Each structure stands twice: as structure tokens, then as C-alpha cells.
Amino acid sequence: MNRGLMHTLVYTIEIDANDPLRMYCGTDYGNIYTSTDGGFNWMLTRVGIPEDYDNERVSALHIDRTNAEILYTGFGGRESRYNLFMSTNAGAAWQVLATPSEWKKHGVLHILRNNTDPPRLFCGLGWFHGIFYSVENDSVWTRILGDHGIQVLTSHPGNASYLYAGASAGMALLRSTDGGDTWSQSTNGIDVKDKDTGVRCISCSPSNPSVVYAGVTGHSHGLYRSTNAGASWQPLNNVAEISEIAIHPKNENLIYISAIGTGVWRSTDGGANWTKLTLGLPTTDVMRVRFAPGYPVRVFAVTLKHGIYRMVDEELPECMFE
User: What is the rounded distance in angstroms from the CA atom of residue 87 to the CA atom of residue 281?
Assistant: First the structure.
């Protein structure tokens, strides 16, 4: 079901973990939208974003895990003078964050505020431009992983020292256990002999942080699972072009994945069996999939060029989440 943004090219979506009705999405034309009713209605919220950003795309959104009033957004870098903004009032207004001059040529594809001591703000510029981080929103940025074609970055929900980065060019997956200072390849169980093998998405289970899922592309494509925080991996399926992984916050075995070309898939047993969920979707090219907290389970799919679709998964019994 699509109640808004039907013909909008949506690039990214975030849902407030503490308020399942509050959502944000970033689209083409430099627009950021907010919904306070679970996606039924959307309001344009771009106060502070330059008016001439009509040719830009909002390529990244991130909600601070400790304070949901704080948001970060990144722009695609087509012609933008500034491509990193911050809001301290839940998106009502935005302010520019100082970044290195070289960022003007590249888009911000990933944003992560990691709550180490002191906190670090990470921004991924994608491909071979690396990841940058600043400490406590300082204007000084440090570049890391510049040669590995980083595609995604996430952190362990129970231990901020653990970070995971999905890469291309045969490195596939990297892990840090010291908050991002040092990194090592974490591909035990993933065949990375083919240089086309990469990792596009990574997700950690909120209810069991030792469980991590990774979407692998290329020669060894499919979904992989780790039960030891990324030390080793086991294949679960061979779905190609997995674009996003959503794990239910209370049940590590309930997983939804989106894929370019095959839509949305669901597993209720930790990946042993899968059900394809494409009824009502106008396309099988799905870029993002997200949960809204609470019951019944509400799942949101970001489609390519057809906006956001919502599904209430009434097939799942409430006892799965007790």
C-alpha cells in the first residue's frame, strides 16, 4: 500500500526506534520528508537546505541512537557546495556541518554516529573515496579505508567498539574491534577469490548482538549469517543483489531482505526458509526495507522510482515477539 510519494525517487528511509509513527525519507530534488503517522502523510522539511539543491539527491539519513531529536543527512554531491547537514529538532531545521573541501566532489552515502567515548561521527563517501570520521562533531576529519570501495558501514548495537564495513574489490567485509582505529578482513566462510565479490549491506540483531547478517554480491552472492560477531560466516540463501537487511528488534530469527530484481523476502527461522513477498509492489526493484517497532509488524519497502510501500504482516503471531 502506498499512501504518499508514489512517483518519487526515494533513496533512503529511517524510522524512529522510540516512536514507530515518526519516519524520515530522503529523495531526489534535494528533499527531506517527515511523517508522524506511520507513512500515511508526508511533510516537506528542508528549512536550512539551500534552495538551489533541486539537482541534488538526499543519499543518507541517520537518527542519533541516544537522542532521536538529532538527525544527520548527506547529499549525493552532484553540484552541492555542502553535503553534510545536522538537525537538533527532529528535522524541523537543518544546519551545515564543516567538512573537508574534497568532499564537494563526492556524495555522502553513509552516516553513522557511534557512541564510543568520546562519540565519533562516521561518513562514507563510497567507492574508493573512503570513510571519514570526526570526534564529537569536530571540524577535523580523519580518513580511513580509502582503498577498499566501502559500500556500507554499521556498528554493533551492544558494543560500540565493534564496527563492520562492506567493501568491494575482493575485500568484501571488514571489521573493527576498537571503534574504527584499525580494521581487518572478516570473510571466514565467504569465498572472496573473485574480485567482483562485495558486501552491500550489513545488519546486527538488536536482541542478540552476536548475530550479524551480510548481503554478499558477485560470485558468492546471497545472505550470510554470523553468530560470533563476524568472526565467521555461514551462507543462508543465494538471492542476488541484496540491497538491505532488516532484523526484528525482539526476534533475531525474523528477517526481511530487499533485493534488486526479486523484491522482498521474509524468513521466520533465522534464514533456513524464505517466503517471497511481492504482492502489491509495482516493481521487484526494491532498494530498502525497514521495520517499524511494535505489533503487528509493519514493513516498509523503498522501490526504485515508485516511492515507499507499506505492508502489515498479519501472518505473524504475536507470540513470536514475547
Answer: 33
Closest C-alpha among 2, 17, 31 to residue 62: 17
Whether omega before 209 lies within 30 degrees of 0, making that bond cis, reads: no
In a domain, 184, yes or no: yes
* Distance between CA atoms of residues 212 and 192, nearest Å: 18
Number of domains in the chain: 1
Nearest to 311 by CA among 274, 273, 266: 266
Note the pLDDT tens digit of each residue in 253-286. 999 999 999 999 999 999 999 999 999 998 999 9
Give per-residue pLDDT as tens, 34-71: 999 998 899 999 999 998 888 888 989 999 988 999 99
Q: Where are the beta strands (DSSP E) in 136-241?
A: 142-144, 152-155, 163-166, 173-176, 184-185, 198-204, 212-217, 222-226, 234-235
User: Domain range holding 39?
Assistant: 10-321
Q: Is 4 part of any domain?
A: no
Question: Block means of pLDDT (10 residues each) for the chain, length 322 residues?
Answer: 68 90 92 92 92 88 93 82 92 92 80 89 80 83 81 86 84 89 91 82 90 90 94 94 91 92 94 92 92 83 88 80 66
Question: What's the rounded Cα separation, in Å, for the pair 165 and 199?
Answer: 8
Residue 197 belongs to a domain: yes
167 occurs within a structural domain: yes
- Give the pLDDT of residue 219: 81
